[in-house]
């Protein structure tokens, strides 16, 4: 019985020793390099088991292996024995298992890991994290796009694990997160030393359309294009270049976002402080056109001081044209200072004020009655516009086209481009109007005809037409009409048919209308006037004489 018990104990101890000494497949074991031959290391992993591992598995990417006989290393046991009786082992797998354990711990603690970029793949790079291979997206290499990643290859540096999946063997890392973190710390330290109003030196790192980024020694500030100079700057490249050292002033610091606004012009004298002294109202100065808009043109009087020439102040004669048809960019022009508002930093300028008012010049050189000639520029319902000197127009009203024709009829005889002669009848410089008359070229037949005629005069007219309402008569070529009620003082004699065409009739002038060019005539008024005159000469209301006696006496007096 005792012998049987001792055999069982021996067997249990033997099995226990086998379990302790024999490593299980799929685990990491420690071995010793006993030889190096044919590019491989022969490793004794214990229990009289040996395996072979390529030397390249002992090196980091881009480095030579550093192993010697006698070194103790950890390897991964795939199988206890292969066809040749050797253990199947791997240094890479051992490093990978060790790395994954270490990386999972670092990922859980949100700590940094060390690695080296060793290859380029689609969309990014591969990184060796001490046995495990991770993917580095191109957007996570640096805070700014990297054109050449060559200097970063093989360089050991810290990375931040963004995502990892051991089952799928995926690890995504970021170098940018590390840089941004250290950059934020550096920015905070530098910004803590800066104060608004400080003048500092910086280096231009980047130029955009709206400004330039200036490195202040580890932190960037934005120098906006409007803060580069007092004058208008169309593009920052006009005055800055990348790599140039510039002196700037800290305008504003945002402690939360760490954004810094910089300025250059703030270190220079403000030209607006002396604008009123240098450019008094009413003075004329030479300037350069810097910008043209729909409403006018901006003219630079000196660097930093621009004024606006409104479109209404550009030309005396060109009223409805775009400013670009009057001036061009970079053109030098003479302008007059019309108004200054230093608070709003505005100067109103005039271009036309540097030239004489063409209507004043015309008024001086063309007095009333002067004869002019010009081309018909436009024809409207109320008259003709005639082109005159210095791009100004004069207008011939319908009523000034003809003595004989109605204006609507006379204007039909004219066409655009016709050359027309006319007489200046009025010049209004304030309203910029010139009135012309074509008919004034000839004498006024009406004025000539009635030159010696006054209201109350007795004239002889010729009957030219008989109508129901009266008769048409003519005097010195001028037509007039005598209404039925004016044909006689006696109602029974107010009959147009008692006259014949060609009859000569004495009439009294009751009205002279120069506008309608008509004479007011009346036979009745003449008879009443004659009766009144006879009464005054030959009788009175107290004499008792009859009207027939008086008229008879008057007639006898005329016979004598």
Automatic annotation (TrEMBL):
InterPro entries: NA-bd_OB-fold, Ribos_protein_bS1-like, Ribosomal_bS1, Ribosomal_protein_S1-like, S1_domain. Transmembrane segments: none annotated. SMART domains: S1. It holds the Pfam family S1. Residues 26-92, 110-176, 197-265, 282-352, 369-439, 456-524 form the S1 motif domain. The keyword Repeat applies. It comes from the Bacteria. Keywords: Repeat, Ribonucleoprotein, Ribosomal protein, RNA-binding. GO terms for cellular component: ribosome. Binds mRNA; thus facilitating recognition of the initiation point. It is needed to translate mRNA with a short Shine-Dalgarno (SD) purine-rich sequence. NCBIfam families: PRK06299.1-2, PRK06299.1-5, rpsA. PANTHER family: 30S RIBOSOMAL PROTEIN S1, SMALL RIBOSOMAL SUBUNIT PROTEIN BS1C. Belongs to the bacterial ribosomal protein bS1 family. This is 30S ribosomal protein S1. It comes from Rhodovulum viride.
């Amino acid at each position: 019985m005792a012998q049987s018990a001792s055999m069982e104990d021996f067997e249990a101890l033997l099995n226990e020793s086998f379990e302790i000494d024999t490593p299980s497949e799929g685990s990491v074991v420690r071995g010793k390099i006993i030889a190096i031959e044919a590019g491989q290391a022969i490793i004794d992993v214990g229990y009289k088991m040996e395996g072979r591992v390529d030397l390249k598995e002992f090196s980091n990417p881009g480095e030579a292996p550093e192993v010697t006989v006698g070194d103790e290393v950890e390897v991964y046991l795939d199988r206890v024995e292969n066809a040749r009786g050797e253990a199947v082992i791997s240094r890479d797998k051992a490093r990978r298992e060790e790395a994954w354990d270490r990386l999972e711990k670092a990922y859980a603690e949100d700590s940094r890991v060390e690695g080296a970029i060793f290859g380029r793949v689609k969309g990014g790079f591969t990184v060796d994290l001490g046995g495990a291979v991770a993917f580095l997206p191109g957007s996570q290499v640096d805070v700014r796009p990297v054109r050449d990643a060559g200097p970063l290859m093989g360089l050991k540096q810290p990375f931040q694990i963004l995502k990892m999946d051991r089952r799928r063997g995926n690890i995504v890392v970021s170098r940018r997160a590390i840089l941004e973190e250290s950059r934020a710390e550096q920015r905070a330290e530098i910004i803590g030393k800066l104060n608004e109003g400080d003048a500092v030196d910086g280096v231009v790192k980047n130029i955009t359309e709206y400004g330039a980024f200036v490195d202040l020694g580890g932190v960037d500030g934005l120098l906006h294009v409007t803060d580069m100079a007092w004058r208008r700057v169309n593009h920052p490249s006009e005055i800055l270049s990348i790599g140039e050292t510039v002196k700037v002033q800290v305008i504003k610091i945002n402690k939360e976002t760490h954004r810094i606004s910089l300025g250059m012009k703030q270190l220079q004298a403000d030209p607006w402080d002396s604008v009123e002294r240098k450019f008094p109202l009413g003075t004329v100065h030479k300037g350069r056109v810097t910008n043209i808009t729909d409403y006018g043109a901006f003219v630079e009087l000196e660097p930093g001081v621009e004024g606006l020439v409104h479109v209404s102040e550009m030309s005396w004669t060109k009223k409805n044209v775009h400013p670009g048809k009057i001036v061009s960019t970079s053109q030098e022009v003479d302008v007059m200072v019309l108004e200054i508002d230093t608070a709003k930093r505005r100067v109103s300028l005039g271009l036309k004020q540097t030239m004489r008012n063409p209507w004043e010049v015309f008024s001086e050189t063309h007095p009333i009655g002067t004869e002019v000639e010009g081309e018909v520029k436009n024809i409207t319902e109320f008259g003709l516009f005639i082109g005159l000197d210095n791009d100004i127009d004069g207008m011939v009203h319908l009523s000034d086209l003809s003595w004989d024709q109605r204006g609507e009829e006379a204007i039909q005889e004219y066409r655009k481009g016709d050359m027309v002669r006319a007489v200046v009848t009025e010049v209004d410089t304030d309203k910029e109007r010139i009135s012309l008359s074509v008919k004034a070229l000839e004498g006024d037949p009406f004025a000539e005809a009635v030159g010696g005629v006054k209201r109350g005069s007795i004239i002889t007219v010729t009957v030219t037409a008989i109508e129901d309402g009266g008769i048409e008569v003519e005097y010195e070529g001028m037509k007039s009409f005598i209404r039925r009620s004016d044909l006689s003082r006696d109602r029974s004699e107010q009959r147009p048919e008692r006259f014949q065409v060609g009859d000569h009739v004495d009439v009294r002038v009751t009205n002279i209308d120069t506008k309608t060019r008509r004479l007011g005539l009346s036979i009745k008024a003449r008879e009443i006037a004659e009766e009144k005159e006879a009464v005054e000469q030959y009788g009175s209301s107290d004499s008792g004489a009859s009207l027939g006696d008086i008229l008879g006496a008057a007639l006898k007096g005329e016979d004598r």
